[in-house]
Amino acid sequence: MENGEKKLSPERAEACALFDVVSRRVQSRYVRETERIGMKPGFRNIIRCLAEGYEGATQQMLVRRTRLSAPTVSVSLGRMERDGLVRRVTSDEDQRSVCVYLTEKGWAMERERRRIVDEMEAEFSACLTDGEIQQLSAIMEKVWRQMFGRR
Q1: How crowded is residue 88: how many other Cβ atoms within 10 Å of its Cβ?
Q2: What is the pTM of this model?
Q3: What is the pLDDT, as a whole number, of residue 126?
Q4: Is 109 exposed, middle or buried (0-12, 13-18, 19+ CB in 10 A)?
Q5: pLDDT of the chain along its 151 residues, tens only?
Q6: Is residue 76 classed as helix, strand or coil in its secondary structure?
Q7: Angle of helix 104-125 versus helix 10-36 axis, rounded to 10
């Protein structure tokens, strides 16, 4: 191998390939299922962020929390507002800031997204024992730290 890289053992290569296939298929299904309920690609992270404790966030806060680009958040919020999923309200504390809130329609979409996630998680974990879930969680934490640092 070039540059002194070590070749993966067949077992490690197989495990990495399987992880790749499973993660891609899960992501693809999640995207397909959420698109079926009308959730466009840029909407998923914003709706989830607002629903999971950041309702009333500013656009800049949403950029930081979702790690989407500022233009993507701006365009998505405009479309979401047009579709009746969010409303933007001028902040009482700072008239220059606009806070974003989910509408009832936005909350309904979040409940549907959450239902999809819950069903997928139940299906995914149905074949695993509690001990295997704990092992998998520990392994995934270890991989996360290796790849991305602290969580």
Answers
A1: 14
A2: 0.80
A3: 95
A4: buried
A5: 456 667 889 998 999 999 999 999 999 999 999 999 999 988 999 999 999 999 999 999 999 999 899 999 999 999 999 999 999 999 888 888 899 999 999 999 999 999 999 999 999 999 999 999 999 999 999 998 998 886 5
A6: helix
A7: 150
Q: Quick one: CATH architecture of 10-148?
A: Orthogonal Bundle (1.10)
Instruction: Name residue 88's amino acid.
Output: R
The reported pLDDT for the residue numbered 8 is: 84
Q: Are 98 and 88 in contact (CB under 8 A)?
A: yes
Separation between Cα atoms, residue 31 and residue 39, nearest integer Å? 9
| Cα 62 to Cα 127: distance, rounded to the nearest angstrom | 36
Give domain limits for the chain: 10-148
Token pair for 45: 């992270």
For residue 85, what are its two tokens?
């999923």
Q: Which tokens hold the place of 128?
A: 């695993």
State how far the Cα of 31 lies from the Cα of 37, in Å rounded to an integer. 10
Per the structure block, which two tokens stand in for 52?
Answer: 């999971």
Report d(CA 62, CA 1) in Å as an integer.
43
Kindly give the pairing relationship between strand 86-90 and strand 98-102.
antiparallel
